[in-house]
Amino acid sequence: MSLLTDMRMNKKLEEAVRREREMVEQLRIEAKAKRLPLSFTLENLVKYCETHTASDFLIRGFPKPHDNPFREKRPKCSIV
What we know:
Residues 9-80 form the G protein gamma domain. The protein is an all-alpha fold. The protein has helices at 3-32, 38-51, 57-60.
C-alpha cells in the first residue's frame, strides 16, 4: 500500500477510536445518573400536571382562536 492509503486508514481508525471513547464517556455519565422508582416519578408528574393545568393551553384551549399559533391559517390573498 502507498503511504497516502496508510495515512487515510490511520485517520479513519483514529476517528473511530475517538467516537468510541466519546460513547464510553457518555455511557459512564449515564451510569452515574440517580435512578428513581417509577412510582415516585409518576407521582411527581401527576402533581406537576395538576398544578399547571390552568396554564396549559392543550387542556383548557386558547382564550381567542387567533391566539393559537397552531391554528390552520387561511390564505391572505386569493386570485379570483
